Amino acid sequence: MNEDSPHVLIVRLGAIGDGVFASPLIGAVKRTWPDAKVSWLAEPALASMLSVNPDIEEVVVWPRQRWQSLLRSFRLLALFREVLDFRRELKRRRFDQVFDVQGLLKSAILARLTGAPQRTGLDSGEPTGWLMTRVLPKSRNVARIGSEYLGFAEAVGLDVGDFEMQVATRPGDRAQADRERLRGRYAVLCPFTTRPQKHWFVEQWRDVAIGLADRGLRVLLLGGPGDVEMVDAYIEGTAVESRAGLTTLTETSALIERAEILIGVDTGLTHMGIANATPTVALFGSTCPYTDTTRENAVVLYRKLECSPCRRNPTCEGRFDCMREITPAAVLAQVDRLLAP
What we know:
Layout: E1 7-11, H1 16-22, H2 24-32, E2 37-42, H3 44-50, E3 58-61, H4 64-72, H5 76-92, E4 97-100, H6 105-113, E5 118-122, E6 134-136, H7 147-155, H8 171-182, E7 186-190, H9 202-214, E8 218-221, H10 231-235, E9 241-242, H11 249-258, E10 261-265, H12 268-275, E11 280-284, E12 298-302, H13 321-324, H14 328-339
Parallel strand pairs: 1-2, 1-4, 2-3, 4-5, 5-6, 7-8, 7-10, 8-9, 10-11, 11-12
């Protein structure tokens, strides 16, 4: 291993939000070893965002869906061959260190396939120790955004510096956002997420959209292709303009960067708002929130109940009381505070 210029592979496979949370590791590696090469192993969706980052040498794409398709169709020999080919490609890159910050069995297996002499992972409770050279406990400072990644960086001796999240965009992405801005100042709403208990209620989004319009802001609704079929419910009776499914992830990030304010639930696009230093109001309920956003212009609204956070096991029979208690008036009050001259 070249101690002055190691080739480091970061493993964080999916989940846009966790990719944003883990992004400060890139800068931490480069501050520690200015001549280091940083690569990242990710699934295609996250890879599309990481691939434009100038500090990343290469994004290695893990074809998870392809492998799952082969497994479901019992094409086991073809799957075995593809795994061997993938291992060969990983070993060819001669990584010196692997930082598996996902900490799951699947990510640890991929880390082991690299053949890197040093493989450090996070402890998630899954049996990964036999695949790693070192397993680290997760940070207990859950109040800070991205705390587990900061704790990991400190534990492996990286120069954490300001440890700020980063989302790179292309010049064309920013130009498109600038054209949007020329049409008038705008706010962005990010209501879509993966679990119903993390959602806010449609009628409350409409009330906030109307309130933002009353404050002289255009309102853009952001989301991915899978969210398009739900758009009509959110924009009915409002002047909201949907961009869901119409922009790439990096184009979406540029729109967020140019926005006056972002309002969103616990989803990757909301975390992008904080990464881009856009004034952000984040709405949390079933998930344990980061109350320390590290930015004065980002706030988390969270109503902690006896059952909070329920994570994936809500006990409220679909009422989602923790989210119901966050009112449009409370959200708009934060908007006024963050946008005050």
